[in-house]
């Protein structure tokens, strides 16, 4: 009979590695597409999506890759390096917060664009988006500073040593800022945005680009809810049963479930790209342009190199 510890290791090795590259590539492609298209660069909604994608890639490198290496391959440099230990905890306290906050800010941004109120539509400006995003980054960067101070290696494990900070991370950070507030904001403004889209679509006032952006936002909301909520439920369960007497097998089973749900939740930080491709024609077209441009540049470089080599090999041909 295969043990749950072995099953966890094999799952993380194969499924975890696949999910990391799958989501990381999706995040990189999202960054490229949103930063190269002039229309996307001028919209607050996609600007917040861009910041979220950047922070999401950092989170994938910091948390997902670290989980795969430590659980699947027994490689964890934070157990021996105090600097890496502190930097990882600092990043883990800030990057996902920036990504999640910008996710629901993108929903609010699209709600403002689709609003029938001219006053609300006037709030959807790039200048305001720049100011808000700067404030978001500063907030999460500052709130992560205690993780640099109260993190150290204990018994070969990188961990937060301050009990108050541990309680804040669990109830203030995870359940409040990373779960409850984003879910409420996304469901509320997502519903309002969808209602605005239906009303404007019936009156033929909604442009094609804004309609596709609304569909992208709604698809992203669905992805986040279906991937993050199950892990939040598991995390709440593990906290409530932390002091119960459990058999070794039960602990191993719960650890396996936690790794499955934890890795599934990483779709939030890169899986949106594949949904955007599915629901938005404009996004698909921009992806094709980026791929064609990349191929075109490769085709241009090779002939030039060959030409230089030909001239160097036959210097006497030039008269």
Tell me what the structure shows.
α4 (82-114) runs parallel beside α8. The protein has one domain (4-302): Rhopdopsin 7-helix transmembrane proteins (Up-down Bundle), CATH 1.20.1070. It has twelve helices and two strands. The chain has helices at 4-36, 38-41, 44-73, 82-114, 118-121, 126-143, 145-149, 163-202, 208-240, 248-264, 272-279, 281-313, and strands spanning 151-154, 157-160. It has a two-stranded antiparallel ribbon. The protein is an all-alpha fold and 319 residues long. The protein is globular.
CATH H-level superfamily = Rhodopsin 7-helix transmembrane proteins
Low-pLDDT runs:
304-308, 315-319
The rounded Rg comes to 23 Å
Tally the helices. Answer: 12
CATH C-level name: Mainly Alpha
CATH architecture call: Up-down Bundle
CATH topology: Rhopdopsin 7-helix transmembrane proteins
Order of helices and strands: HHHHHHHEEHHHHH
Q: In which order are the strands of the major sheet placed?
A: 1-2
What is the average of the pLDDT values? 88
As for the number of domains, it is 1
Number of extended strands: 2
Distance between the first and last residues' Cα: 79 Å
How would the global form be characterised? globular
Structural class: mainly alpha
Strand-residue fraction? under 5%
Main β-sheet, in a few words?
A: 2 strands, antiparallel
Helix content: over 70%
């Amino acid at each position: 009979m295969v043990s749950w510890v072995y099953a966890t290791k094999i799952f993380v090795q194969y499924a975890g590695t696949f999910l990391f590259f799958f989501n990381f590539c999706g995040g990189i492609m999202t960054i490229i597409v949103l930063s190269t298209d002039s229309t996307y660069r001028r919209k607050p909604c996609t600007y917040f999506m861009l910041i979220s994608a950047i922070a999401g890639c950092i989170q994938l490198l910091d948390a997902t890759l670290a989980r795969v290496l430590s659980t699947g391959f027994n490689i964890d440099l934070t157990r021996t390096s105090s600097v890496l230990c502190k930097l990882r905890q600092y990043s883990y306290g800030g990057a996902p917060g920036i990504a999640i906050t910008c996710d629901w800010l993108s929903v609010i941004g699209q709600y403002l664009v689709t609003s029938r109120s001219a006053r609300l539509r006037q709030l959807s400006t790039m200048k305001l988006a720049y100011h808000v995003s700067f404030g978001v980054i500063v907030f999460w960067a500052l709130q992560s500073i205690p993780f640099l101070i109260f993190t150290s290696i204990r018994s070969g494990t990188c961990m937060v040593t301050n009990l108050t900070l541990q309680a804040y991370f669990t109830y203030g950070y995870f359940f409040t800022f990373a779960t409850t507030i984003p879910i409420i904001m996304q469901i509320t403004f997502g519903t309002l945005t969808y209602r605005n889209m239906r009303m404007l679509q019936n009156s033929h006032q909604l442009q094609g680009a804004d309609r596709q952006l609304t569909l992208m936002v709604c698809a992203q909301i669905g992805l986040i809810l279906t991937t993050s909520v199950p892990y939040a439920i598991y995390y709440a369960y593990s906290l409530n049963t932390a002091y119960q007497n459990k058999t070794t097998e039960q602990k191993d089973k719960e650890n396996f479930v936690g790794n499955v749900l934890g890795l599934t939740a990483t779709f939030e930080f890169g899986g949106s790209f594949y949904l955007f491709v599915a629901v938005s024609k404009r996004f698909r077209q921009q992806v094709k342009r980026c791929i064609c441009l990349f191929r075109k540049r490769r085709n241009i470089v090779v002939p030039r190199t060959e030409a230089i080599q030909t001239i160097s090999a036959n210097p006497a041909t030039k008269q």
